[in-house]
Amino acid sequence: MRSPDLSFELAGVTFKNPVLTASGCFGYGAEQDGLCDISRLGGICTKGLSLAPRPGNPPPRIRETVAGMLNSIGLENIGIDAFIEEKVPLLTGVDTVVVANLFGVAVEDYARLCARADDCGRIDAVELNISCPNVHEGGVEFGVDPVMAAKVTAAARRSTSKPVIVKLSPNAGDRIVSVARAVEEEGADAVSLINTISGMAVDVRSRRPWIAKTYGGLSGPAIRPIALRMVHLVAGSVKMPLIGIGGISTWEDAAAFVLAGASAVQVGTACFVDPSAPERMASGLAEWVAEQGASSVSELVGALRSE
Ligand code: SIN
After folding, report:
1. Is the shortest distance between the CB of 32 and ligand 1 below 6 Å?
2. pTM check: above 0.90
3. Separation CA 261–CA 268 (nearest Å)
4. What tens digit of pLDDT does each residue of 113-160 get?
Protein backbone atom coordinates (compact mmCIF):
# COMPACT_ATOMS: atom_id res chain seq x y z
CA MET A 1 0.00 0.00 0.00
CA ARG A 2 1.31 3.47 -0.88
CA SER A 3 1.77 5.78 2.09
CA PRO A 4 -0.66 8.72 2.02
CA ASP A 5 0.38 12.18 0.90
CA LEU A 6 0.66 14.32 4.02
CA SER A 7 2.03 17.40 2.30
CA PHE A 8 0.48 20.84 2.57
CA GLU A 9 1.10 23.64 0.08
CA LEU A 10 0.89 27.30 1.03
CA ALA A 11 1.44 29.97 -1.63
CA GLY A 12 4.25 28.06 -3.31
CA VAL A 13 5.84 26.63 -0.15
CA THR A 14 5.50 22.88 0.44
CA PHE A 15 5.35 21.52 3.99
CA LYS A 16 6.16 17.78 3.92
CA ASN A 17 3.49 17.12 6.53
CA PRO A 18 0.92 19.27 8.34
CA VAL A 19 2.60 19.23 11.78
CA LEU A 20 4.50 22.38 12.78
CA THR A 21 5.78 23.56 16.13
CA ALA A 22 4.11 26.66 17.57
CA SER A 23 5.91 29.92 18.22
CA GLY A 24 7.37 30.33 21.69
CA CYS A 25 7.41 26.60 22.39
CA PHE A 26 10.42 25.47 20.35
CA GLY A 27 12.95 28.29 20.74
CA TYR A 28 14.56 29.39 17.48
CA GLY A 29 14.52 25.80 16.21
CA ALA A 30 18.06 24.49 16.25
CA GLU A 31 18.25 24.31 20.09
CA GLN A 32 15.84 21.37 19.89
CA ASP A 33 18.22 19.31 17.77
CA GLY A 34 18.82 16.00 19.54
CA LEU A 35 15.50 16.21 21.39
CA CYS A 36 13.49 15.98 18.19
CA ASP A 37 14.31 15.15 14.56
CA ILE A 38 13.40 18.55 13.15
CA SER A 39 13.68 17.28 9.58
CA ARG A 40 10.66 15.06 10.18
CA LEU A 41 8.44 18.05 10.97
CA GLY A 42 6.34 19.93 8.45
CA GLY A 43 7.78 23.17 9.77
CA ILE A 44 8.91 25.18 12.76
CA CYS A 45 7.68 28.59 13.88
CA THR A 46 10.30 30.66 15.60
CA LYS A 47 9.90 32.50 18.85
CA GLY A 48 8.27 35.89 18.23
CA LEU A 49 10.85 38.25 16.68
CA SER A 50 10.80 42.03 17.03
CA LEU A 51 12.94 44.74 15.42
CA ALA A 52 14.99 45.31 18.59
CA PRO A 53 15.82 42.70 21.27
CA ARG A 54 13.31 42.56 24.14
CA PRO A 55 13.97 41.42 27.74
CA GLY A 56 10.36 40.27 28.21
CA ASN A 57 8.31 40.52 31.41
CA PRO A 58 9.69 40.05 34.95
CA PRO A 59 9.42 36.56 36.56
CA PRO A 60 7.50 34.58 37.62
CA ARG A 61 6.11 34.38 34.13
CA ILE A 62 5.06 30.73 33.76
CA ARG A 63 2.67 28.69 35.90
CA GLU A 64 1.31 25.22 35.29
CA THR A 65 -2.49 25.04 35.72
CA VAL A 66 -5.03 22.23 35.50
CA ALA A 67 -4.55 20.74 32.01
CA GLY A 68 -2.67 23.80 30.88
CA MET A 69 -0.11 26.51 31.38
CA LEU A 70 -0.25 30.25 31.94
CA ASN A 71 2.56 32.35 30.49
CA SER A 72 3.41 36.00 30.42
CA ILE A 73 6.82 35.94 28.77
CA GLY A 74 6.29 39.31 27.14
CA LEU A 75 7.92 38.31 23.87
CA GLU A 76 11.50 38.12 25.12
CA ASN A 77 13.66 37.65 22.02
CA ILE A 78 17.03 38.52 20.51
CA GLY A 79 15.61 40.65 17.69
CA ILE A 80 15.35 39.80 14.01
CA ASP A 81 18.89 40.89 13.08
CA ALA A 82 20.53 38.62 15.69
CA PHE A 83 18.16 35.83 14.67
CA ILE A 84 19.25 36.09 11.04
CA GLU A 85 22.94 36.42 11.90
CA GLU A 86 23.25 33.88 14.73
CA LYS A 87 20.35 31.41 14.59
CA VAL A 88 19.56 31.05 10.90
CA PRO A 89 23.00 29.54 10.05
CA LEU A 90 22.22 26.75 12.56
CA LEU A 91 19.20 25.83 10.46
CA THR A 92 21.20 25.37 7.25
CA GLY A 93 20.66 21.87 5.93
CA VAL A 94 17.66 21.25 8.18
CA ASP A 95 15.01 19.95 5.82
CA THR A 96 11.93 21.67 7.15
CA VAL A 97 9.99 24.88 6.49
CA VAL A 98 11.02 27.83 8.68
CA VAL A 99 8.25 30.26 9.59
CA ALA A 100 9.40 33.49 11.27
CA ASN A 101 6.87 34.70 13.84
CA LEU A 102 6.98 38.52 13.79
CA PHE A 103 5.80 40.99 16.40
CA GLY A 104 5.58 44.79 16.26
CA VAL A 105 4.17 47.58 18.38
CA ALA A 106 3.20 49.67 15.33
CA VAL A 107 1.91 48.78 11.86
CA GLU A 108 5.16 50.04 10.30
CA ASP A 109 7.18 47.58 12.46
CA TYR A 110 5.47 44.65 10.71
CA ALA A 111 6.39 46.13 7.32
CA ARG A 112 10.06 46.47 8.35
CA LEU A 113 10.17 42.98 9.89
CA CYS A 114 8.64 41.44 6.75
CA ALA A 115 11.10 43.29 4.51
CA ARG A 116 13.98 41.95 6.62
CA ALA A 117 12.55 38.41 6.49
CA ASP A 118 12.06 38.74 2.75
CA ASP A 119 15.83 39.18 2.30
CA CYS A 120 16.65 36.02 4.24
CA GLY A 121 16.61 32.93 2.02
CA ARG A 122 16.21 30.49 4.93
CA ILE A 123 12.97 32.09 6.12
CA ASP A 124 10.23 30.43 4.06
CA ALA A 125 7.14 32.19 5.41
CA VAL A 126 6.14 34.75 8.02
CA GLU A 127 3.54 34.56 10.76
CA LEU A 128 2.24 37.90 12.04
CA ASN A 129 1.72 37.80 15.78
CA ILE A 130 -1.25 40.08 16.40
CA SER A 131 -2.48 38.04 19.33
CA CYS A 132 -0.03 38.11 22.25
CA PRO A 133 -2.07 38.99 25.37
CA ASN A 134 1.02 39.82 27.45
CA VAL A 135 2.23 43.15 26.07
CA HIS A 136 0.82 46.65 26.42
CA GLU A 137 1.32 47.82 22.84
CA GLY A 138 0.63 45.85 19.68
CA GLY A 139 -0.15 42.18 20.18
CA VAL A 140 -3.73 41.39 21.01
CA GLU A 141 -4.67 45.07 20.66
CA PHE A 142 -4.34 44.52 16.88
CA GLY A 143 -5.77 41.00 16.94
CA VAL A 144 -9.18 41.89 18.39
CA ASP A 145 -9.81 44.72 15.92
CA PRO A 146 -10.57 43.79 12.29
CA VAL A 147 -9.53 47.27 11.05
CA MET A 148 -6.12 47.16 12.76
CA ALA A 149 -5.60 43.52 11.79
CA ALA A 150 -6.28 44.47 8.16
CA LYS A 151 -3.79 47.37 8.33
CA VAL A 152 -1.05 45.13 9.74
CA THR A 153 -1.72 42.50 7.05
CA ALA A 154 -1.73 45.06 4.24
CA ALA A 155 1.62 46.47 5.44
CA ALA A 156 3.11 42.97 5.62
CA ARG A 157 1.72 42.02 2.21
CA ARG A 158 3.39 45.08 0.62
CA SER A 159 6.73 44.14 2.19
CA THR A 160 7.17 40.45 1.41
CA SER A 161 6.41 38.02 -1.37
CA LYS A 162 6.69 35.11 1.08
CA PRO A 163 3.54 33.45 2.41
CA VAL A 164 1.89 35.58 5.10
CA ILE A 165 0.13 33.75 7.94
CA VAL A 166 -1.77 35.81 10.51
CA LYS A 167 -1.99 34.38 14.04
CA LEU A 168 -5.43 35.13 15.49
CA SER A 169 -6.56 35.77 19.04
CA PRO A 170 -9.37 33.93 20.84
CA ASN A 171 -9.69 37.05 22.96
CA ALA A 172 -11.63 38.53 20.02
CA GLY A 173 -14.47 36.08 20.86
CA ASP A 174 -16.69 35.30 17.87
CA ARG A 175 -15.38 38.51 16.25
CA ILE A 176 -12.45 36.27 15.29
CA VAL A 177 -14.47 35.57 12.13
CA SER A 178 -14.48 39.27 11.16
CA VAL A 179 -10.76 39.50 11.88
CA ALA A 180 -10.09 36.45 9.67
CA ARG A 181 -12.19 37.88 6.83
CA ALA A 182 -10.46 41.26 7.13
CA VAL A 183 -6.96 39.79 6.87
CA GLU A 184 -7.97 37.51 4.00
CA GLU A 185 -9.19 40.57 2.09
CA GLU A 186 -5.79 42.22 2.57
CA GLY A 187 -3.94 39.27 1.09
CA ALA A 188 -3.14 36.93 3.98
CA ASP A 189 -2.33 33.46 2.65
CA ALA A 190 -3.49 31.67 5.81
CA VAL A 191 -4.51 32.24 9.40
CA SER A 192 -3.26 30.29 12.41
CA LEU A 193 -5.54 30.02 15.42
CA ILE A 194 -5.78 30.21 18.35
CA ASN A 195 -3.17 32.01 20.43
CA THR A 196 -3.61 31.85 24.23
CA ILE A 197 -6.68 32.90 26.19
CA SER A 198 -6.16 35.53 28.92
CA GLY A 199 -6.27 34.00 32.38
CA MET A 200 -5.04 34.26 35.97
CA ALA A 201 -3.88 32.03 38.84
CA VAL A 202 -3.56 32.98 42.51
CA ASP A 203 -1.23 31.76 45.28
CA VAL A 204 -3.60 31.86 48.24
CA ARG A 205 -0.80 31.62 50.83
CA SER A 206 1.05 34.71 49.66
CA ARG A 207 -2.24 36.20 48.35
CA ARG A 208 -0.43 37.17 45.19
CA PRO A 209 -1.04 36.25 41.57
CA TRP A 210 1.34 33.44 40.47
CA ILE A 211 2.28 35.55 37.44
CA ALA A 212 4.19 38.77 38.17
CA LYS A 213 2.14 40.73 35.63
CA THR A 214 -1.07 39.27 37.19
CA TYR A 215 -2.56 37.95 33.93
CA GLY A 216 -1.13 35.47 31.47
CA GLY A 217 -2.11 33.51 28.38
CA LEU A 218 -3.62 30.08 28.98
CA SER A 219 -2.55 27.27 26.64
CA GLY A 220 -2.57 23.45 26.65
CA PRO A 221 -5.34 20.82 26.58
CA ALA A 222 -7.62 23.05 28.71
CA ILE A 223 -8.23 25.31 25.70
CA ARG A 224 -8.52 22.60 23.01
CA PRO A 225 -12.33 22.49 22.75
CA ILE A 226 -12.43 26.29 22.43
CA ALA A 227 -9.75 26.23 19.75
CA LEU A 228 -11.50 23.46 17.85
CA ARG A 229 -14.77 25.41 17.79
CA MET A 230 -13.03 28.58 16.61
CA VAL A 231 -11.26 26.70 13.81
CA HIS A 232 -14.60 25.21 12.74
CA LEU A 233 -16.27 28.63 12.90
CA VAL A 234 -13.57 30.40 10.86
CA ALA A 235 -13.23 27.53 8.37
CA GLY A 236 -16.85 28.05 7.37
CA SER A 237 -16.26 31.77 6.73
CA VAL A 238 -13.04 32.10 4.68
CA LYS A 239 -11.44 30.46 1.63
CA MET A 240 -7.77 30.58 2.72
CA PRO A 241 -6.22 27.62 4.58
CA LEU A 242 -6.26 27.47 8.38
CA ILE A 243 -3.57 26.25 10.74
CA GLY A 244 -5.10 24.91 13.96
CA ILE A 245 -3.45 25.56 17.34
CA GLY A 246 -4.64 24.94 20.88
CA GLY A 247 -3.68 22.13 23.22
CA ILE A 248 -2.86 19.64 20.47
CA SER A 249 -1.02 16.82 22.26
CA THR A 250 -1.68 13.63 20.27
CA TRP A 251 -2.25 12.67 16.64
CA GLU A 252 -5.95 12.22 17.45
CA ASP A 253 -6.09 15.87 18.54
CA ALA A 254 -4.39 16.89 15.29
CA ALA A 255 -6.85 14.77 13.28
CA ALA A 256 -9.80 16.44 15.03
CA PHE A 257 -8.49 19.86 13.94
CA VAL A 258 -8.11 18.60 10.36
CA LEU A 259 -11.73 17.40 10.36
CA ALA A 260 -12.84 20.76 11.78
CA GLY A 261 -11.20 22.50 8.80
CA ALA A 262 -7.48 22.96 9.53
CA SER A 263 -5.06 22.19 6.70
CA ALA A 264 -2.19 21.98 9.20
CA VAL A 265 -1.61 22.22 12.94
CA GLN A 266 0.90 23.75 15.32
CA VAL A 267 1.97 22.00 18.49
CA GLY A 268 2.83 24.29 21.40
CA THR A 269 2.55 23.42 25.09
CA ALA A 270 2.95 19.67 24.39
CA CYS A 271 6.54 20.42 23.24
CA PHE A 272 7.44 21.43 26.81
CA VAL A 273 6.30 18.01 28.04
CA ASP A 274 7.91 16.09 25.18
CA PRO A 275 9.79 17.89 22.36
CA SER A 276 9.43 14.80 20.17
CA ALA A 277 5.60 14.82 20.39
CA PRO A 278 5.13 16.63 17.03
CA GLU A 279 7.33 14.09 15.27
CA ARG A 280 5.14 11.22 16.49
CA MET A 281 1.98 13.07 15.54
CA ALA A 282 3.06 13.14 11.89
CA SER A 283 3.38 9.31 11.90
CA GLY A 284 0.04 8.89 13.68
CA LEU A 285 -1.67 11.14 11.16
CA ALA A 286 -0.26 9.11 8.25
CA GLU A 287 -1.77 5.91 9.69
CA TRP A 288 -5.10 7.63 10.29
CA VAL A 289 -5.31 9.00 6.74
CA ALA A 290 -4.67 5.50 5.35
CA GLU A 291 -7.17 3.93 7.74
CA GLN A 292 -9.80 6.44 6.58
CA GLY A 293 -9.27 5.23 3.02
CA ALA A 294 -7.94 8.60 1.84
CA SER A 295 -4.86 9.05 -0.32
CA SER A 296 -3.98 12.47 1.09
CA VAL A 297 -4.60 14.38 4.31
CA SER A 298 -6.08 17.23 2.27
CA GLU A 299 -9.08 15.00 1.44
CA LEU A 300 -9.95 14.98 5.14
CA VAL A 301 -9.69 18.75 5.73
CA GLY A 302 -13.14 19.89 6.88
CA ALA A 303 -14.52 16.36 6.35
CA LEU A 304 -16.44 16.39 9.62
CA ARG A 305 -19.71 14.45 9.29
CA SER A 306 -22.77 16.35 10.47
CA GLU A 307 -25.01 13.37 11.16
C1 SIN B 1 4.66 35.89 25.21
O2 SIN B 1 5.84 36.03 24.83
O3 SIN B 1 4.22 36.57 26.15
C4 SIN B 1 3.78 34.87 24.56
C5 SIN B 1 3.72 35.05 23.10
C6 SIN B 1 2.34 35.13 22.56
O7 SIN B 1 1.35 34.95 23.29
O8 SIN B 1 2.19 35.40 21.36
Report:
1. no
2. yes
3. 19
4. 999 999 999 999 999 999 988 888 888 889 999 999 999 999 999 999
